[in-house]
């Protein structure tokens, strides 16, 4: 079975080498479809003996990806973006997957790097990127592989840092606004545009979009847990604290096994209490309970989970809670547990002023 790397690119000279270097040994050919670069992207692609094609951009990601897939000569395709790169040795996993019967679509693990209130954070997701070259995409943006084949997680891990300290929503937001106008009852696109606004630090718009999305979900959507967690973060960031408590109460059964939910709920309660101590001070014990529950759940492979909410970040925040409430011994214990992960904020706390 021959494997094609299939990419669509535009002005990616700063990251394209890193991407191709990470994957070239796993593939039999490299297909690069350029959608209008004005830098050295195409020249870099040609350094790797890539087959490079020009494509007139039509504000439709699925159309561009499908054009790229049409150029592939391998029976299988691996799709990457230029701001992604493979981080594990996965030759055996890829070969085993594409040689296995019955045929399936491979979901790779992607780690998204982003800036959060506590510094650099990492969110994990599983996306369909390894599949027969006959498959095609649908959707103008945040496009999905259309296929009845089962989805199976495959041992390929990629890092993605395209939105880390790099505001890249100039292309995405206009398309999302158009798609929302065409599909006003679909919560998925409100959820996606909220993430774009979050990257631009437009917290009011992110909150408003997630409020729309939350009102439309059925809780059967695969992204529903992450949407709810992100909605609580947006409530905190935008200062609309009055709406958050009812969501925390309503979603505890649905998200009973989500460390991210209990982590953000503890953050929310702290902000709520600080906003009106006289009214909400009786909620203080729940902060400890929620962090302890996050730690009890621990780190998981759940879609959209942020690394650390079930381990070092929860230990650290619980340490801060104990320190503020005067229990220094417990605070130091939690800081030491977080420091075991080399978590810098806890190491700094242990060193003192």
From TrEMBL:
Residues 4-117 form the Glycosyltransferase 2-like domain. It holds the Pfam family Glycos_transf_2. It comes from the Bacteria. SUPFAM superfamilies: HCP-like, Nucleotide-diphospho-sugar transferases. Transmembrane segments: none annotated. Coiled coil: none annotated. PANTHER family: GLYCOSYLTRANSFERASE, POLY-BETA-1,6-N-ACETYL-D-GLUCOSAMINE SYNTHASE. This is Glycosyltransferase. The lineage of its organism: Bacteria, Bacillati, Bacillota, Bacilli, Bacillales.
């Amino acid at each position: 079975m021959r494997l094609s790397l299939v990419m669509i690119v535009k002005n990616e000279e700063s990251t394209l080498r890193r991407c191709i270097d990470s994957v070239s040994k796993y593939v039999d050919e490299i297909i690069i479809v350029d959608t209008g670069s004005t830098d050295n992207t195409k020249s870099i692609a040609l350094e790797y003996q890539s087959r490079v094609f020009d494509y007139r951009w039509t504000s439709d990601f699925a159309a561009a990806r499908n054009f790229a897939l049409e150029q592939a000569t391998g029976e299988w395709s691996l799709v990457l973006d230029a701001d992604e790169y493979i981080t594990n040795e996965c030759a055996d996993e890829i070969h085993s997957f594409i040689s296995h019967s019955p045929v399936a679509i491979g979901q790779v693990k992607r780690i998204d790097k982003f800036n959060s209130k506590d510094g650099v954070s990492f969110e994990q997701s599983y996306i369909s990127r390894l599949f027969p070259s006959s498959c095609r995409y649908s959707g103008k943006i945040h496009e999905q592989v259309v296929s009845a084949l089962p989805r199976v997680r495959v041992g390929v891990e990629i890092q993605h840092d395209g939105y880390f300290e790099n505001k890249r929503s100039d292309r995405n937001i206009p398309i999302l606004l158009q798609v929302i106008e065409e599909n006003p009852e679909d919560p998925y696109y409100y959820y996606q545009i909220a993430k774009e606004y979050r990257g631009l630090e437009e917290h009011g718009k992110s909150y408003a979009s997630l409020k729309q999305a939350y009102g439309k979900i059925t809780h059967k959507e695969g992204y529903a847990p992450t949407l709810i967690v992100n909605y609580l973060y947006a409530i905190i960031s935008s200062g609309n604290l009055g709406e958050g408590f009812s969501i925390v109460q309503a979603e505890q059964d649905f998200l009973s096994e989500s460390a991210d939910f209990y982590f953000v709920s503890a953050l929310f309660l702290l902000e709520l209490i600080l906003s009106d101590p006289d009214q909400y001070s009786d909620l203080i014990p729940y902060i400890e309970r929620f962090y302890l529950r996050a730690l009890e759940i621990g780190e998981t492979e759940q879609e959209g989970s942020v690394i650390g909410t079930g381990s070092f970040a929860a230990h650290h925040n619980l340490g801060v809670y104990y320190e503020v409430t005067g229990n220094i011994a417990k605070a130091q214990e939690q800081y030491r547990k977080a420091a075991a992960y080399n978590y810098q904020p806890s190491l700094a706390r242990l060193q003192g002023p």
